[in-house]
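I have been asked to look over a protein record a colleague put together. Alongside the sequence sits a line of tokens, each denoting a local backbone shape. Please read both lines and tell me whether the tokens look consistent with the sequence. I do not need a full report, just your reasoning and any doubts. I have pasted the whole thing underneath without changing anything.
>
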Amino acid sequence: MATPTFTAHHLHDNSSLVTPQRTLAPPPPPAPTTIFSSSLHESTDSHSPNRNPQTMTNPKTPYGFSNSPPLFLIPPLIFLSLIEIASGFGSMGPISASFGDNGFFCAIDASGKQAVICWGKNATSSSPSSSSNPSLSSSQIPSMAALAGGDGFLCGILSNSSQAYCWNLNGSSTDLVPESFKTTAYSHISAGKNHVCAVRGSYYSDNDLGTVDCWEIVWKSDNSLSSKQSTLFYDPNVSSLVFKKVVSGDGFSCGVVREGGLVCFGPKSAGLGVSGVSENFVALASGIGSLCGVSEVSGEVKCWGNGNSFLTPPVGIGFISLAAGAQHFCGIRENNHAVECWGSFNSSLIPKGSGFSTIASSEFVTCGIREVDLVLDCWFANISSQPDYDPPLQLCSPGLCTPGSCGEGKFAFNASILNEPDLTSLCVRKDLKICSRCGVNCSEGFFPSSTCSENADRVCTACSLCQNSSCWDVCKLQSSPEMQRKHDRQFHRLVLIIGSSASSFVLIVIGWCLLPRDCHKKQRREKTISVLYWQTGHRERHEW
């Protein structure tokens, strides 16, 4: 069966923004691992993202300039330095982004085979509808259960074995997993700047808890990648902990543990300021030096680490998922599944016509899967940002395939809405399903015309089709005199139509009741006249 196709939105931008070239450096030497910082704080840094005190005071910039570069180079240096410290890494999902000069996106398609499709910068895509690049051929990438993006590479969990598999733009057929971990099954995986961490256990098992394995991804001098075991992320205090999910950044990984709470580890974990956090989180995303999570209790976002990359998150808004960019975070709102971002971004570029089931961000581009039709949609964080990404035309999976029931407040995706006769499920096994969070409200300009059920999310209808007072409040039409007059006219017209129909029906019934009686009277009259005529004629003949 062919993969379902649809029209996708493509990005175009003619701006010329210079990006720094990758600095190839050996990995940092092993250092004692710090698990917790001594203080817990939520950053409320309100400084401009274009000002970085560390960059301004550093006697030598990362690009080899002296302490006193020419004045005309200072703004570009500040901007480039901020990019270097602010790259983000998303959490595991059906769509993920790889960062850096060799960045690209990948997503699990909606064919029912859990196949992977990838697309890169400047219209390099594995989609048949786009210009082809052999290095991104989806046929070289195995079927995946989940994806996670790092710096120049992507990792996933194989759909048939729960084993880890990692690849990059220049070698999608090369597995960047050390031999000692290739046969291990994992239930969760995360990719950071130059390392990967994964939670042991079968992905499709109801028990998704396990210990964590980590390994390094090493950039070689020829710009290729390799992997190796490393002690950088090993700590005896962490090795005995049981994790449910993890997320990774630059030199650190953090995860939710079985006993409850958030634990961070790695050589740079102390800089996050995460210590004594007992709260659980349903979603995590990390920047290169920051971490944000969605609280299981309130649904609100809490962040730690370098405030330049996330600034102050929204207050009083519930989210269901997160994605991190270079200088911004984005999340899907719990109530209407709309995308909301904070940090350095242009809100006018975020699509408003549809909610999203899942999103992923690279440095400056965010891509998501629209919940209404499973089409990929991509947009820039800022109008001047580059590069250009060309998303493929295939429909993509709205979530991850999981066993068991969906539970309260969620619905199981129904593949029949795609109108593909042979497609009964988006998962490789019949006992799996994609569970998504129910929406309550709709995006601006739409109203919920039906509520969420076991196999379908609430349906959003355009406010232009609002015909009665049940949707006036949502569509902000309740105070419009014109709408009231229109409603009154429609009501009067309806009354006239019903009244006319009722009157006509009554007349017809009366007519049908009176017609047989009139006919009967006429027949009796004619019979009487005939009898009288016969009697009169007979009498006359008798007298004669």
Notes: The helical segments are 53-57, 74-86, 236-239, 307-310, 472-475, 481-543. Confidence is low (pLDDT under 50) at residues 5-87, 123-135.
